[in-house]
Amino acid sequence: MKMKTYFAFLRGINVGGKRLVKMDALRSLFLELGYENAHTILASGNIRFEAVNPTAETIESALESSFGFSIPVTLWTLREIQTLVESNPFSHVDISPDTKCYVTFTADRAVCSLLVLSKDRKTTDLMKELDKEYGKRVTTRNWNTVLRLLK
């Protein structure tokens, strides 16, 4: 079987000083799992790696054993991320300084969402809405982070 490049998106780590995961430890864990060329991107739980057939369940089990708490994982291939970026889902949005574009990664593939931040509406408000609609097996990234994944 041929290796492919994947991205693992970990939910809810390193937020507000809780559920801390060091990126060097995360990278090492992926290498211990037999994955190759593992690289973390930012400290928000994004890791790019190569593997034949990884599963979220295998990664989640290893994460819980290693770090002591459950961490939901969503896996996407490099090609899926490239296709998402090429689709330019926010091209129709009039971006202002208060506009933040986010992509929510689900197990069934992305749901693009737009959030306008204000004093009354924060990112945590968006996550509560998404949790109600999709459950806890989703994770959200700023569009700029998604673009950075491909660099």
The CATH superfamily of the largest domain appears as: SP0830-like domains
* Category by helix and strand content: alpha+beta
- The domain tally reads 2
CATH topology of the largest domain: Alpha-Beta Plaits
User: Judging by the overall fold, what is the CATH architecture of the largest domain?
Assistant: 2-Layer Sandwich
The biggest sheet amounts to:
4 strands, antiparallel
Count the helices. How many?
5
Q: Measured on Cα atoms, how large is the radius of gyration?
A: 16 Å
Strand fraction equals: 25-35%
The coarse overall form would be globular
Placed side by side, the strands forming the largest sheet appear as 2-3-1-4
Helices and strands, in order, run as: EHEEHEHEEHEH
Low-confidence stretches: none
CATH class of the largest domain: Alpha Beta
What does this structure look like?
The chain is of the alpha+beta class. It folds into two domains: 4-82, Alpha-Beta Plaits, CATH 3.30.70.1280; 89-149, no CATH class. The protein is 34% helix and 28% strand. It is built from five helices and seven strands. It has a four-stranded antiparallel sheet with strand order 2-3-1-4. The longest helix is centred in the middle third of the chain and has 12 residues, at 56-67.
